[in-house]
Predict the structure.
Amino acid sequence: MSATPHPDPHAADAASHGGDGAGHATLRGYLTGFVLAAILTAIPFALVMTGAIPDRQATAIIVMGFAVVQIFVHMIYFLHMDARTEHGWSLMALIFTIVMVVIALAGSLWVMYHLNANMMPGMPDMSQLP
Amino acid sequence: MSMAAGARPEEIAVRTYVAEEAHPHAEGDSTSLGFWIYLMSDCLIFAMLFAAYGVLGGNYAAGPAPKDLFHLPLVAVNTTALLLSSITYGFAMVAMQEGRIGRTQLWLAVTGLFGLAFIGIELSEFADMIREGATPQRSAFLSAFFTLVGTHGLHVTAGIVWLVTLMTQVRLHGLTAANRRRLACLSMFWHFLDVVWIGVFTFVYLLGVLR
């Protein structure tokens, strides 16, 4: 991490940051991230609270879409993720984690949904079967 | 027995080992990567809790459903508090880079207050739910809910304790290299918790009320 302070926070954008971790925060970056995050938070809340879209399924998909975009905004503007941080190792760790999270979430939901569906009381009554 | 011949490669091995150890390695050089990997492992913990909530979130056991329990305006206030704490921590990081101790401390204090507001609102929400009989023991949905949201709340609480510790460190020792590194780690931790909260307010609260 560099010990000398940046004289101008706006000029620090182009500063080299090969291995200095999260040491290149800029005021403009944080403000951009904040405005984007505020918009991306406000819209899904408004959609759900007002029920602007009658179709619940569509609302759910849109709300999840906003969450994914907002996670990217936070990663880029607040956590300063890019391919150069720690010579790319941070991004590698993040990608690995995302793969693990997707497997864990999708696998759990998929398997347990089918388990639930096959145990439903609405199934053909087993006692009536020969 | 050829002791003299056998000692030679060993000696070379030792010399090589020492040479590798002498590789220049500044203190705290790898801290931010190591801390990032810790955060990724924490991310896996939250993924498991989200998976448990996703599987059990519909099992109300004839008890209260999300629609009966969640007050979205309160969640919106909570989300705002956490988002504001993220940007104020950003201001603290910018002030730290400029070497302004007073301003750094001020923004850290504001961040801590927003964090306390978040925890306060969350605890009052939990207290209201428990008073209405929606305790973690009531249904699988509520067990999963309290585990997931409670774990996030515990992380934020730990973050506030860490924040106060670092404010004391900065007051005593100033913005030394070690303190800058610690503040950068807490910055990652704090922003990471905000990322997890995006998942919580979307999947637990918004989709819960939609269900």
Observations:
- Residues 140-173 of chain B form the longest helix (34 residues).
- The CA atoms of residues 40 and 62 of chain B lie 37 Å apart.
- Chain B has one domain: 31-210.
